[in-house]
């Protein structure tokens, strides 16, 4: 048989090292970014539905005559909810879904780093969710006439960046954890969803908790991230803040390091366990 | 560097299975692979033939660095799969039959491009190669179709292309034509042959439980059952061992309680297997001497079984399997062997 020329393409240079790492991040982020354009239902589920919860809190605060800043707090909390939902459902449970689809085994046997796969999921998720969060802020601010007064753009961007890094680091860490602990990832996701709404103060300042409850809740990066951002964008935010912005930035830096190292450690452990036990990469279908 | 693409020595894998709630403390063991020693030369198309649950997938998982063996060792492309998985992985790829990998929201091209990036392929070359490979499997008109809109067969073709796309030194295909219609399976087999023809240093390990596929494609075949390799040779050599035997296929009226064991008890009847067909049965017999057919016919007559058709045929790999295992492959599969796949 004559060799097919299309198949004689051997020896093309494939990249490795950090370039492969970056390529993997981009490639794994791609389905999330492109998915938003293809599946327009997010406009309803991720913008309209959260706005209902936001509206409910706004009406309650207005009915009881709470300070007008609380309305802004709620809109901002509603926007940040999108990130939490994304981390919970599209990061923490993601390796479980990947296993069920048969992708996890393919990710492991590819020469790329699994850490790059998780980072790709995080970057793609962050980008897609940022659009949703922006939409919620714009719609909420217009609907409820929220005004902002940013004390420091630099600090605001830094807090957002750190909060997202720590949050998605936590998502990367919990992705392996969910896979190791769970047969039914959605049960854990369901279990984690509402308590975080409460303890991270999505719809009220966490200063309302006693100090130790608020301190314990600070393990969730959104808690301090949201608290610091509220302090930075509302004139009376500082008086309702839990800790000073600088302290919250310092804690967020610690959380970033902690969660990213934890993610790497758990990922390595998960991969070793998967190879030893032979079960973690197996779809149950 | 070794001239073997794949080497295994005394490779075993035992799964520890937890009991149910009442027997939580009791840990059962399942032997999925037992002392498998194999070598596959570079450039070879090697087949693993065996029923579901024989251990084929377990062996592939070990060779693709997805699973650690309990004992023994394995090398792929010259590297130990446990000591140096990072050197093995850039050199291999794997496709499993019936897999649903990738993302439904992405098109065929996008899914394939994504996987190519995990191997560090330049995007331009990847896209060019995707088009060419899709043409070869007759999927070029679906390049911009979302993979969720593909039928099972077309999706499997996409998966096959994913395996070839990164141009691995060693490609593992685990039941690649599972669930494909005749035409699609033929396209896949054609691609497999062309890929190997194009570069003689490429190696392909294929698992299948389709005898015809193994016979048609493979340079050598290992017959595997219950985790053990029972025979390993070229299809022709495997069949040659049976050529001194006489192989008959007899279609009869209902057997009236006649069992294959009863026939096998006859001298010079080496193996007998029975398949129910519409309105009767089909007996497959491996006889040491043609003369033994007379005693079989006698027994059938005594049991009031009518012979409707009698054919003598050349041995196939199915006969080889039956000779080695004592049962037809489909009968082994029906028995729900407690071995992991």
What brief labels describe this structure?
heterodimer, A: 285 residues, mainly alpha, 12 helices, globular, B: 341 residues, alpha/beta, Rossmann fold, Alpha-Beta Plaits, 2 domains, 6-stranded mixed sheet, 4-stranded antiparallel sheet, 14 strands, disordered C terminus
Topology readout:
The complex is a heterodimer of chains A (285) and B (341).
Chain A: H1 17-38, H2 42-63, H3 69-92, H4 94-101, H5 103-109, H6 114-144, H7 153-181, H8 185-199, H9 211-217, H10 221-233, H11 237-240, H12 245-277
Chain B: E1 4-18, E2 27-41, E3 45-49, H1 56-63, E4 71-76, E5 79-80, H2 85-88, E6 92-96, H3 108-117, H4 123-136, H5 152-165, E7 170-174, H6 182-198, E8 203-208, H7 211-217, E9 220-225, E10 228-233, H8 235-243, E11 246-252, H9 260-264, E12 269-277, E13 280-287, H10 292-302, E14 307-313, H11 317-325, H12 329-334
The chain-level mean pLDDT of chain B equals 88
- What's the N-to-C terminus distance of chain A? 40 Å
**Overall pLDDT of chain A:** 86
**Major sheet attributes of chain A:** none
> How do the helices and strands follow one another from N- to C-terminus of chain B?
EEEHEEHEHHHEHEHEEHEHEEHEHH
In DSSP terms, counting alpha (H) and pi (I) runs of 4 or more, how many helices of chain A?
12
Integer count of domains of chain A: 1
Rg over C-alpha atoms of chain A, rounded to the nearest angstrom: 21 Å
CATH topology of the largest domain in chain B: Rossmann fold
| DSSP helix fraction of chain A | over 70%
Report the radius of gyration of chain B as a whole number of Å.
23 Å
Q: Given the C-alpha coordinates, what overall shape of chain B results?
A: globular
Q: If strands are numbered along the chain, what order do they take across the biggest sheet of chain B?
A: 6-7-8-3-9-10
Beta-strand segment tally of chain B: 14
């Amino acid at each position: 048989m004559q060799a097919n020329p299309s198949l004689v393409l051997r020896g093309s240079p494939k990249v490795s090292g950090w370039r492969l790492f970056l390529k993997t991040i981009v490639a794994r982020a791609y389905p999330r970014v492109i998915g938003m354009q293809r599946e327009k239902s997010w406009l309803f589920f991720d913008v309209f539905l959260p706005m209902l919860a936001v509206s409910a809190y706004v009406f309650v605060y207005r009915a009881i005559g709470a300070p007008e800043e609380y309305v802004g707090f709620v809109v901002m909390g509603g926007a940040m909810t999108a990130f939490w939902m994304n981390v919970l459902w599209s990061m923490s449970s993601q390796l479980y879904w990947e296993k069920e689809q048969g992708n996890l085994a393919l990710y492991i046997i590819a020469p790329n780093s699994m850490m790059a796969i998780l980072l790709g999921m995080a970057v793609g998720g962050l980008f897609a969710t940022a659009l949703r969060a922006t939409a919620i802020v714009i719609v909420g601010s217009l609907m409820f006439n929220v005004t902002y007064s940013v004390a420091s753009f630099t600090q605001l961007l830094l807090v957002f960046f750190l909060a997202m890094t720590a949050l998605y680091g936590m998502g990367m860490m919990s992705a392996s954890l969910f896979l190791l602990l769970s047969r039914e990832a959605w049960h854990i996701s369901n279990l984690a969803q509402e308590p975080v709404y409460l303890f991270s103060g999505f719809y009220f300042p966490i200063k309302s908790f006693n100090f130790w409850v608020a301190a314990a809740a600070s393990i969730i990066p959104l808690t301090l991230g949201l608290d610091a951002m509220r302090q930075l964008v509302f004139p009376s935010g500082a008086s309702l803040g839990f800790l000073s912005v600088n302290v919250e930035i310092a804690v967020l830096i610690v959380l970033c390091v902690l969660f990213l190292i934890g993610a790497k450690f758990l990922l390595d452990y998960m991969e070793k366990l998967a190879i030893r036990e032979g079960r973690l990469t197996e779809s149950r279908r | 560097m070794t001239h073997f693409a794949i080497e295994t020595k005394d490779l075993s894998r035992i799964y520890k299975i937890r009991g149910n709630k009442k027997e939580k403390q009791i840990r059962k063991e399942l032997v999925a692979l037992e002392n498998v020693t194999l070598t596959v030369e570079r450039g070879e198309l090697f087949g693993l033939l065996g029923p579901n649950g024989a251990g084929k997938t377990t062996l592939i998982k070990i060779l693709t660095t997805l699973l650690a063996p309990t004992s023994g060792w394995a090398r792929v492309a010259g590297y130990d799969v446990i000591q140096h998985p990072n050197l093995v992985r850039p050199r291999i790829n794997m496709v499993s039959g019936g897999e649903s990998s990738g993302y439904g929201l992405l098109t065929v091209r996008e899914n394939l491009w994504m996987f190519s990036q995990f191997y560090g392929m330049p995007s331009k070359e990847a896209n060019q190669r995707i088009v060419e490979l899709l043409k070869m499997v007759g999927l070029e008109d679906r390049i911009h179709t979302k993979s969720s809109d593909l039928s099972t067969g077309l999706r499997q073709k996409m998966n096959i292309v994913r395996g070839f796309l990164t141009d691995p030194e060693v490609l593992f295909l685990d039941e690649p034509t599972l669930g494909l219609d005749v035409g699609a399976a033929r396209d896949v087999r054609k691609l497999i042959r062309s890929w190997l023809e194009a570069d003689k240093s490429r190696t392909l390990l294929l698992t299948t439980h389709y005898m015809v596929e193994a016979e048609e494609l493979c340079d050598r075949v290992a017959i595997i059952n219950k985790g053990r390799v029972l025979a390993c040779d070229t299809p022709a050599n495997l069949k040659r061992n049976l050529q001194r035997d006489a192989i008959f296929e007899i279609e009869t009226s209902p057997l009236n309680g006649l069992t294959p064991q009863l026939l096998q008890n006859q001298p010079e009847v080496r193996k007998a297997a029975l398949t129910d067909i519409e309105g009767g049965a089909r007996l497959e017999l491996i006889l040491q001497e043609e003369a033994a057919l007379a005693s079989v016919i006698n027994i059938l007559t005594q049991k009031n079984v009518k012979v409707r058709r009698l054919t003598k045929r050349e041995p196939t790999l199915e006969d080889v399997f039956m000779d080695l295992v004592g049962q037809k492959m489909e009968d082994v599969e029906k028995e729900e062997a407690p071995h992991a796949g």
